[in-house]
Every structure is written in structure tokens, then in C-alpha cells.
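Quick log. Single chain, no ligands specified.
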Amino acid sequence: MEEIVEKLFSHYDSDKDGFVEFSDFAKILSKLEVELLANYPIQRNFATFDINKFPGYDLNELIAYIKNSQKYESLRKECSEFFTKLDEDKDGLVCTDQLRNNPTYALIFKQYSKSEANLEEFTNILIERLFQTIIDKQ
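-> predicted structure:
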């Protein structure tokens, strides 16, 4: 997920100062379909969750904001449930070779070189692919 956010961040950091301004922050959240963290107007969310209080969000702040979103947590929960179903022997690993050979999952796991994935790796692969799909649709 961080790689996708980093690409968006780099795209919107037009002056390359290491920060995205409010309007770009709003565009990134919209692109990723990430909701606001609080029931405040977006400008207040931007100010409230700005950790370093510089005039913009750096990459780490943006990633932290997204990781604290309900969308991200919901996706992690869904991935965990899916992983549990696939981990038939309950050893904490799923066989990615089998997933690459399955037409439904082949595209998602084609670039993953290891033959097995733990929950964290599995979740990161799925969430990154989902965010990439959302961006590609727009």
C-alpha cells in the first residue's frame, strides 16, 4: 500500500518539497476512496491530523492517515478472514503458487516471487492491488 501512496504523493508533490498541500491531500483521499477520520470538514481533518504541523502532509503523515482510516481497517479485516479460509492447515502461511495458478488470483499474485505468504504479506499484496485497481479505474 505504501508504494501506491508514494506514487500518488510524488505525483501531487508538484514542487517536490516533500509535502502535499490541502487540495492535493483531498485529491489523494478521493482517488483512494478513503473517508475522513472524523466528522469534521475536510479542512479541519487536514489540520487536526497533521502530525508535524508543517504547512502540508509529508509522505509518512499521509500513510499514517490512510492506515488509520476505516476503509483500511475494513480491508485488513476482510483480508484476514480470507487468509484464514485459505490457510487450511493453520500454519500461518498460504501457498501463493496455488493462487498464481488460479485464474481469479493470478494477476494479483503474479509479481510475488515467494511460494508462501504470511498474513501481513498477503494483506499488503491484496490492499496494494485494490488501491491500484481503484486508481486505474479513474
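Residues 119-137 form the longest helix (19 residues).
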